[in-house]
Write a structure and sequence with these properties.
Elements lengths: L3 H16 L6 H23 L11 H9 L4 H10 L3 E5 L15 H17 L7 E4 L2 E3 L7 E8 L14 E5 L12 E8 L2
Antiparallel strand pairs: 1-5, 2-3, 4-6
Length: about 190
């Protein structure tokens, strides 16, 4: 159904999605496979009408999958047999507390804001900040010297119960698996530059 290169790319994609806590179950993987086949079909159509490159025809199974909008069970059995580095696993059962954000006390927030203000002064992003009271600072921040390049999402795993197909997600054979069920940005990495 998929070419060797497409299959290798799919396996890398599934492993990386799981490592990003966004693992895909069998139904979602089927959707990705159908999209790959649609792209190849469109590419073949373009090549037939004067484009350049190598045409890769769709197999009968691929055409049938596109018509029925369903990837058969045999594809997944063959995928797991051919790629031992990829395994369907039950969602991780390690607990990540939903109450993590609620544990923050007023003193913790004040300490964090004071540390941040001192850092901004030290690196020259906000040299004229003045503290009004604990946790409250006043002054100008030079945003042209800040590059916010990363937001770290708060991962909350809702544990799976049972071994149904929906609860099994694809992961690398040596990797734990977890699913990002709620995304709430809790921290930002700021890179100062001049």
């Amino acid at each position: 159904m998929l070419t060797e290169q497409e299959e290798r790319s799919l396996v890398r994609y599934l492993i990386n999605k799981n490592r990003a806590c966004q693992g895909l179950n069998e139904n979602q993987v089927g959707g990705v496979v159908l999209n790959i086949l649609r792209v190849r079909k469109e590419n073949n159509r373009r090549l037939r009408h004067g484009g350049w490159g190598k045409k890769t025809p769709l197999s009968n199974a691929a055409n049938q999958a596109l018509e029925s909008i369903y990837v058969g069970r045999s594809f997944f059995l063959r995928l797991r047999a051919a790629h031992l580095e990829l395994k369907p696993k039950n969602k991780n059962r390690h607990k990540v507390s939903v109450k993590r954000g609620l544990r923050c006390t007023e003193d913790m927030a004040i300490d964090y804001l004071d540390e941040l203000a001192k850092l901004l002064i030290e690196v020259g992003i906000a040299p004229d900040l003045k503290q009004k009271s604990p946790g409250i600072w006043e002054g100008e921040v030079d945003v042209s010297k800040i590059w916010a390049h990363d937001e770290t999402p708060q991962f909350i795993n809702f544990n799976a119960s049972g071994q149904s197909k929906k609860n099994l997600i694809y992961a690398g054979s040596g990797d734990d698996c977890a699913e990002l069920a709620k995304e709430n940005h809790e921290s930002v990495t700021v890179q100062p530059y001049s």
